[in-house]
Design a protein that fits this description.
about 260 residues, mainly alpha, two-stranded antiparallel ribbon
Length: about 260
């Protein structure tokens, strides 16, 4: 979350909406060019890669990750549709019932009469600020607020006014949220067997790996074991391919290939 704030301040883009999921991210940006949008994404990936390298010793962890940039117009309700699609990712993943309940994005920023409070960055010492942000950044606005979870609140760097002016009213925004393609995907999923939240499956994975294969991690399994493990997740938790990809740390294509092998 802090890397989003830092990169937003350092880039030539305006963030309208974003969400961080366990295996992918979405941003709705207002930029002068596709190059500026790509520079923002590459900068975010670079900061995150440095952190992963420092903490886990993993090199070039995000270099191979694909980036897809789709231009949208400011007309024909394109911004509303794009923002609603992004915000509803957490709902479609069965993590929460409304975007405002998901903390890792902008779900609770818009049309919220109660602004979140926090501690200004200026109240932190340089050492504490570096420890918090995992980088040397001294140019961030001192009045930006840090919330209780330790990250800079999105309301500080998101163009909230532009988004609210685009949707006009909370009712109109809720209509787009309810009618987005992500919302429809959730409704279709509700017709199937009961689903479990990602957190429930993630908590069960170590014990399931141990009981079935004598391993603690999915990544330690050979391909045949991964195929069987995916089959077990599908059978025990009614997990679909997107959810399996998220909880196992796979791409959609990798998860789909394992599912096809069942």
């Amino acid at each position: 979350m802090n890397f989003v704030a830092i990169q937003a301040h350092a880039s030539r883009v305006v963030i309208l909406s974003f969400i961080l999921m366990s295996n992918h991210v979405h941003f709705v940006l207002k930029a002068d060019s596709k190059r500026d949008a790509k520079a923002f994404i590459e900068g975010f990936k670079h900061r995150y890669s440095l952190y992963l390298r420092y903490k886990y010793g993993v090199k070039e962890f995000l270099r191979g990750n694909d980036v897809r940039i789709d231009p949208i117009s400011w007309y024909d309700e394109d911004p509303e549709k794009a923002i609603a699609y992004v915000e509803m990712n957490c709902v479609a993943a069965n993590i929460c019932s409304h975007p405002s309940q998901y903390p890792w994005g902008t779900g609770d920023v818009f049309f919220n009469p109660v602004k979140l409070t926090g501690r200004p960055l200026g109240a932190f010492s340089k050492r504490a600020c570096k420890r918090l942000l995992h980088t040397d950044v001294e140019s961030l606005p001192e009045d930006w607020l840090v919330g209780a979870d330790g990250y800079i609140l999105p309301q500080n760097y998101i163009d909230v006014a532009a988004v609210e002016a685009c949707f006009k009213t909370p009712q109109r925004m809720n209509w787009f949220l309810s009618n987005s393609s992500k919302a429809k995907k959730r409704l279709e999923a509700d017709d199937n067997l009961p689903a479990f939240r990602d957190q429930v499956i993630l908590a069960a994975i170590p014990d399931l790996c141990q009981s079935l294969f004598g391993k603690r991690k999915f990544s330690q399994l050979a391909r045949d074991g991964q195929v069987e493990f995916v089959r077990q997740l599908h059978f025990r938790f009614s997990a679909h391919v997107n959810q399996i990809a998220r909880v196992c740390g796979l791409t959609y294509e990798q998860a789909a290939r394992l599912m096809d092998s069942i």
